[in-house]
Amino acid sequence: MGNCLKTPTADDISLLHEGRAGSETGDSSENLGPPPPYQEEAPIYHPTPNTARPVTQLTEDEQIRIAQRLGLIQHLPSGVYDGSKKGRECVICMNDFVIGDPIRLLPCCHIYHKDCIDDWLMRSFTCPSCMEPVDAALLTTYQTN
Amino acid sequence: MSEAQAALLLRKQLGDLSKSPVEGFSAGLIDDCDVFKWEVLIIGPADTFFEGGFFKAHLYFPKEYPQKPPKMKFISEIWHPNVEKNGEVCISILHEPGEDKYGYESASERWLPIHTVESIIMSVISMLADPNDESPANVDAAKDWREDYNGEFKKKVRRCVRKSQESV
Residue B113: which of A48, A92, A125 has the nearest Cβ? Predict the structure, then answer.
């Protein structure tokens, strides 16, 4: 009790100075010292749909499977929504496609926002609209071409 | 998709449902500040023992929605083979795609990112009318349903219906 009413100590004043230096000059870099070493956050993958682990904690088999999946996804046609089909929405995020949105086309001809569908395909390799397995459909596409 | 996008998608559904309500249930947020936690009131489907009941349930959406399914729990007491005794709803569409060799085994029955509050509740309503006996979450309710449908099962369900009417 009563701690919050204490008179300012040396520590409090130093905190005030730091805060002011940062906000007033707008350039606090000289007060912060050297930047911390560069650290990129490890991307998270889903070796199975209900597990999520950073890339550094995957087994070799999981890494191979995920790399294969990434490779397959890269093979799916993608592009930019050009408005040729009006009033279409991405059924994953329920937002209308806007001209310029990156989109991906699945072999079953369903289209989605690239970010929406790529995230899903890493979890399950099926079209959310028609449930067609994407890899089987890919094979068919290759055979017919 | 980010948490912000998940919140946006849920807000959109909330708006759509309040603008054009769907027959059979009503939906809203438990707390207006948290769009990830919903409260729904399900009307017991006609021509079932659940008819006349108003069953309250909560839906808890993960930050990764719609890539991941929500969890659903009945707050009202309910006696059903696919609802745990603690109220947790156990239906396949709320399960993530299983761990199987090809990653798409029975994909149609599992979670899909195109499911909405409406499609989930519609599945739950059809589950109330038509339990899945193969993987019961409440073994005792499944036994009643299988062996004494018009006796013990009916009695317990009707008791839940009465209780749900009192609490509305």
Answer: A92
Nearest beta carbon to residue B99 from set A48, A92, A120:
A48
Q: What is the pLDDT of residues B28-46, one digit of tens each?
A: 999 999 999 999 999 999 9
3-state secondary structure (DSSP) of residue A91:
coil
The CATH fold assigned to A44-144 is Herpes Virus-1 (3.30.40)
- From residue B63, how far is each of A42, A71, B40, B67, B91 by CA, in Å? 19, 27, 19, 9, 21
Q: Which CATH architecture has domain B3-167?
A: Roll (3.10)
β strands within chain A, DSSP E: 44-45, 53-54, 78-80, 89-90, 95-96, 102-105, 111-113
> Is A92 in the B-facing interface, judged by CB distances under 8 Å?
yes
- Provide the whole-model pTM: 0.79
Q: Where are the alpha helices (DSSP H) in chain B?
A: 3-19, 117-129, 139-147, 154-167
pLDDT in tens, A77-131: 999 999 887 668 999 999 999 999 999 999 988 999 999 999 999 988 999 999 8
Question: Token digits for A121?
Answer: 């395909």
Q: Are B57 and B43 in contact (CB under 8 A)?
A: no
